[in-house]
Amino acid sequence: MRALRAAGVDAFPTLIQHLDDKRRSSPILWGATLSKGTIGEACLDIVRMEIEGVWPKAFREFHVLSQKNAREWLREHSDQSLEQLRCAAQEESLQRAQVQLDILQETVRFIAKPYDERWKSKHEAR
Known about the structure:
single chain; mainly alpha; 0% strand
């Protein structure tokens, strides 16, 4: 694990090659990754932790990198340094969170509208 971490972005091509590896990961990886699943999941965790860091479970839906898009995302950003990758992922995560916030705010307005109308009619009648 130290060698992978020390290699930084230079390890990404090797890790990405194994994203689809369905073999069970080694207990050696379990403490260093978020997964006790497959080698592919462990490889994604390592790349994701290097780029996006470790997030609380409640916010992981905003992760940029996934099993489905990691290869393509890294290919699109292949000319960037690790710091630039981190900034790009952070911007995308914030955009996803903003979309969710906008949806939640619209949902609250929708749900609250009948209550607001009842409250207005009740107080205007006085």
